[in-house]
Amino acid sequence: MGATNNSGEAVRADDRAHVFHSWSAQELIDPVPISRALGSYFWDADGKRYLDLSSQLVNLNIGHQHPRLVAAIQEQAGKLCTVSPAFAVDVRGEAARLIAEHAPGGLDLVFFTNGGAEANEYAIRMARLHTGRHKVLAAYRSYHGATAGSITLTGEPRRWPSEPGIPGVVRYWGPYLYRSSFHAETEADECERALAHLREVLMFEGAHTVAAIVLETVVGTNGILVPPDGYLAGVRTICDELGIVLIADEVMAGFGRCGEWFAVDRWGVTPDLITFAKGVNSGYVPLGGVIISRAIAETFARQAFPGGLTYSGHPLACASAAASIRIFEDEGIVENARSIGEQVIGPGLRDLAARHPSVGEVRGLGVFWAVELVRSRATREPLVPYNAAGAAAQPMAEFATAMRERGAWPFVHFNRTHFVPPCTVNEAEVEEGIDALDGALEVTDRYYDEEA
Ligand SMILES: Cc1ncc(COP(=O)(O)O)c(C=O)c1O
User: Fold this and answer.
1) Model's pTM, two decimal places?
2) How far apart are the CA of 47 and the centre of ligand 1, in A?
3) Residue 361 has what pLDDT?
């Protein structure tokens, strides 16, 4: 057996011959070989540097190769790599305690999974067993993961090929003022009408049959939709009135992304279950989980919880989560995400919107921002159609190429680009990203047509 050849060519050859990639037509992709990464940057095999404006899959909240986090994983690997979930382990207990300490009051227990999709699977199972009801309400414009239940919850095209999914999932519309499903023109109206709509769906479904309402606290991939003030509190009230479990999916929005430990903190709302993954340890080792209220945990106090995973609470993953949370505390990473969002990213993106006609709307908080691109501000026609592919998606593909040529790696979804750098990003890096966007938006401006 020879030594690993990690030249770009060799990496590409093995990849093309043997790696089956997510969400892709295998012969139509050409994954870029990556050689190294540090902080807010990564480098390809040719030595070209990219500013990571996507935080990989919006999970790299602490940035690449944080030395303390790498050291914590190495230390744990030397001590105890793995042990069954049935044992009590120092780092597992510590990670659960630290997560619970930062979660809203009353959410005290943590069930660990390997990622976000599994977390949502277990959250709906807990809600169903706790309530004895079976339906789950999930929103359009959402992504909850790709396993059977989580892809059924998902309210966008990635679900379609997996239909029919699990039984009992019912869909509703959440608030999104820029493209209001409720013909609202103010945040207050959007909030009120979205809540009235939710009540109506519940009335027609029979609220007594509904175990849970699932929502992304701030919708991520499907648009960075920040709920209007009062919306989450309104959903909480509905759930309380009707005995429904509120599940907040914070897989993308949690752990600093929104400038808060948990996005719900921004509105002071306490869900019954929070699902997390990604930012909990920035994906240095796969980890996710469900944070559970005392009341739901009580259901399983004397009756076994019917579920488990060989790697639930994996020591390497838990050691990395505990270390990551301590680093966040010591380095003020959540505070950095909040202030850089308010003082640098928001103003920088709004300035671009003022100068580039193809920017229809800029919205976000923390290090979680969307730039929505349109053909016309008057009609708000998206720059590319919903779910566009191939030639129809060409303007966004050209935009992404222009970003990469400028040394910035964008997160592009439909007619939007998301500005989602690590929570550790500094002002100079944000400015570098805004400059790259400034140049690349000239490409999208060419498609602009006020009359479209
Ligand atoms: C909001 C949300 N929930 C769940 C998931 C699924 O997480 P995973 O890919 O770790 O299964 C994602 C992934 O992007 C997500 O953004």
Assistant:
1) 0.98
2) 30
3) 98
